[in-house]
């Protein structure tokens, strides 16, 4: 999901309060264990991106819409602003596009 609003990566790093990052060490360990065990459920439950802490309400609204449209997990890509969504069931791309009219929806894997 690529929003119409783009942000410069350098600026994104400047917005980060380093004191608020790195609090998910246990979650990161569980994510790694899930990857090694090839447990999709553990991976989905433990994926995270500290840059999400510094995103505004539009990010949360978009994430909520995607979750309501069938995503099992939605994560910010890198420093942002694009999102990726994971689901074991196919998305209704038309409904998602209607719910997010100003964002580009790409279906990379079927």
What would you note in describing this structure?
This protein is of the alpha+beta class. The protein is 41% helix and 11% strand. The strands form 2 sheets. It has a two-stranded antiparallel sheet. Strands 2-3 form a two-stranded antiparallel ribbon. Helix 2 (25-36) runs antiparallel to helix 3. The mean pLDDT is 88.
Unreliable spans: none
Helix content: 40-55%
Q: How does the overall form come out from the CA principal axes?
A: flat
Radius of gyration: 15 Å
Q: What is the residue-averaged pLDDT? A: 88
Count the beta strands.
4
- Tell me the strand order in the biggest sheet: 1-4
Give me the number of helical elements: 5
What is the distance, rounded to the nearest whole angstrom, between the alpha carbons of the first and last residues?
Answer: 15 Å
Please provide the ordered H/E string of secondary-structure elements: EHHHHEEHE
The portion of residues forming beta strands comes to 5-15%
Largest sheet geometry: 2 strands, antiparallel
Please identify the structural class as seen in this structure: alpha+beta
